[in-house]
Known about the structure:
Elements: E1 8-15, E2 23-24, H1 26-36, E3 40-51, E4 54-63, E5 66-76, E6 82-90, H2 92-103, H3 106-110, H4 124-133
Parallel strand pairs: 1-6
Antiparallel strand pairs: 1-2, 3-4, 4-5, 5-6
Amino acid sequence: MASFKDNLAENVTLEGPVMNGVLHGREAVLAQLAVVSQFYRDRLELFSFDHGDYHVEEYSAVVAGRPLKATATMHRNSEGQIDSVVVSHRPLAAALTFSRLIAESTIGAAADPHRFYRPEEQTYDDLLAYADAQPAGGTA
Length: 140
């Protein structure tokens, strides 16, 4: 069985509340996953299951001392490759901490300034304006 990374489609998208917009493409998704995996401590899979073309995983971890839970929902295309990943982190304080850490990483430095949470450089209105300017339907 192919690993998660080996099974990503070239046109895969990644979405989640730790970032504004949608990340597009296998290389971009792999680059972000390589960075964010460094932030997880004590990652523990709670459950996973398949339902039709979807695979769902729930896990807990600690990020910068904050416990969090995450649900990852992955869609497989007709070739069985993962073409969509949505990861939802909670609670909000942990998700914002995670987003800030990504913003401060090499991935965040390469991203546009409002993709991730930068508390010293953004207001709430900045985040809303950025999100409102993104095209609808996951095509950011």
